[in-house]
Specification:
Order of helices and strands: HHHHHHHHH
Largest sheet: none
Oligomer: single chain
Shape: globular
Distance between the termini: 54 Å
Radius of gyration: 19 Å
Strand content: under 5%
Structural class: mainly alpha
Number of strands: 0
């Protein structure tokens, strides 16, 4: 490797495992934006995101010696799992998942998928982030992390049926938000 070359993921990992603080900083800088976005899918308050991300990076750097490299992307996937687990730990500790009932008309809105192709990613992200904590958490675990209701129930210490109903309600509320966004933006054109 030449002095000007940017180390690949495996090289960066080996450098970190040997105690190279420059490689740690490089890894942090390379992934902090992505991991912040992952964390903010679960937590609405920016201060909570910062706190959880700090805990996650402490855990990443303290346990990186035990990480087994499995190919390009495996380190990022491992770090993402740590961030998600730390966010869930925070939710369980601080927020206690609260379930909220939706009006009947909103649950019917979830039956049809709203068109999302014209919605900017940042707007959709904000809509998801604005969901109540229980809805947002189950939605992210199911949709983004591809967890089953059984896995979600185990992670959150809830029943599978609660997980399924929280997902259904999250989709209904999200569909209503999307519908309002589309209506508001088509009227302004």
């Amino acid at each position: 490797m030449t002095n000007n070359a940017i180390p690949n993921e495996e090289q960066t990992l080996r450098l970190i495992q040997s105690g190279d603080t420059t490689a740690m900083k490089s890894l942090y800088c390379r992934h902090v934006r992505y991991l912040t976005a992952v964390c903010s899918r679960y937590l609405a308050a920016d201060e909570d995101v910062k706190d959880v991300l700090q805990e996650a990076f402490l855990r990443i750097f303290s346990s990186v010696g035990r990480f087994e490299y499995r190919g390009e992307g495996s380190l990022r996937a491992w770090m993402t799992r740590i961030v998600v687990n730390e966010a869930l730990k925070h939710i369980r500790r601080e927020q206690r998942l609260q379930t909220t009932d939706l009006k009947q008309e909103l649950t019917e809105a979830a039956q049809e998928e709203p068109p999302m192709e014209d919605i900017p990613a940042e707007t959709l992200h904000a809509m998801i982030r604005d969901l109540p904590a229980g809805y947002r958490t189950v939605f992210n675990l199911y949709v983004m992390e591809r967890k089953s209701h059984r896995e979600i129930a185990s992670l959150l210490d809830i029943s599978e049926s609660t997980s399924a109903s929280q997902l259904h309600r999250a989709k209904a509320l999200l569909a209503e938000k999307i519908k309002r966004y589309i209506t508001a933006n088509s009227a302004s054109r």
